[in-house]
């Protein structure tokens, strides 16, 4: 059971909630803050104070006063009108992440919602009731208004949810579970949708996948290193210590561990003096991607515990301030940075694939074919990898440099952070497939050299791969093999060979 308090949620805890299906509960002290914040909102309504989103309209309508008797209707209209998401739905795991992040943000006690709102969000998590949220339609400032409105709809018994592997109308699931739909009170609709929880949810899932993939990339690169009889001197610790980047030093150390005991690696001058950069610079390039991951992790863990709605209520109502914490610029930058770091793992992987299949660059059979000419072998696998890395270059264009004014120019600068997060997740999926192709080619190359000569950990890694796809003894439909390795890497594979 993970305890949410609005302050201490980590990516490790999110991993347990999202992928191990850990349940969540709230901290008692945090709930006390929520009660105090809610009392402040009720006093504002009773006193007829003019406070944005509580007794006024929204966006350009912020100067329109709302009668006290209509403040609850205002919240329902808000959710209905803002549920403008379009396109394919986010995955179920991202919907689950949105529920957790929204509950955690509200538990900070600055949003003015009733405890029942947070309890219902956590109940959905624990019961496996996950909102169906369209991916497109958020500008990433004023928060993720459209996506979060679709989440909020499900609390009202409207919209759709994923439940037990199926997409169904929310009312059907609530009736089955005996759960009564909520009716939103003053401020609650705004508190549910004014935040960055869609882009952050996508970012969390993307980061967790990226971290695992970065470890797997090292095992795959190490196997390629053996297949091409790489010069191990370039991995010497002294080389990397004098550069000074800890991540580079750590990658080199892990690759050395993976290659320990190998009879396939070579030394300087034994077969050649230097390797191509795609082998020699693995620690430098992969290490730089780990630097990106470190930056992204730091920003996500701040945002996961941030109050991002508007207005915010301080000191039990002594201060109610309209600010801009809903602006997604920090996450937009982080997601654009993540795109670059992960795209480069695919770029260098594709160059290693080329060195594995190109007979002008190695002494292996052309395209690793069992019968060159009669059979094409891995020729078109390299085409596929090249296509994926080219697509990544388009997706890597920064979303955060774009902005389009909205709400009659009241909201005149936006982050496009959700677009950046979606594209980062797409890039990661492409990177995984490129690495799967490299893994297939590396296994084939090592078989030509002699698997028994590989490092013990690499023999295990080769055995793992061969348990998923067979050796290439004749041409077949390689698409199925690529997807099988990709699926294993995403859902079942270990992060590092030997662990």
> Mean pLDDT across all residues, rounded?
92
> How much strand content do the residues show?
5-15%
Distance between the termini: 26 Å
Strand adjacency order, main sheet: 4-6-7
Q: What is the β-strand count?
A: 9
CATH homologous superfamily (4th level) name of the largest domain: Fumarase/aspartase (Central domain)
Output the radius of gyration.
26 Å
Brief description of this entry?
The chain has 499 residues and is mainly α.
Structure description:
With 499 residues, the chain is mainly α. The chain folds into two domains: 2-195, Fumarase C, Chain B, domain 1 (Orthogonal Bundle); 203-492, Up-down Bundle (Fumarase C, Chain A, domain 2). Helices cover 55% and strands 6% of the residues. It is built from 18 helices and nine strands. The protein has helices at residues 11-19, 28-47, 71-82, 92-106, 115-127, 145-155, 170-177, 188-193, 197-227, 237-241, 246-259, 277-280, 282-303, 329-357, 379-395, 417-449, 456-466, 478-492; strands at residues 2-4, 24-26, 86-89, 130-131, 134-136, 160-163, 166-169, 312-314, 319-321. Strands 4-6-7 form a three-stranded antiparallel sheet. A two-stranded parallel sheet has the order 1-2. A hairpin with a 2-residue loop joins β6 and β7 (166-169). The radius of gyration is 26 Å and the shape is elongated. The two termini are 26 Å apart. 52% of the residues are buried. The model has no long low-confidence stretch (mean pLDDT 92).
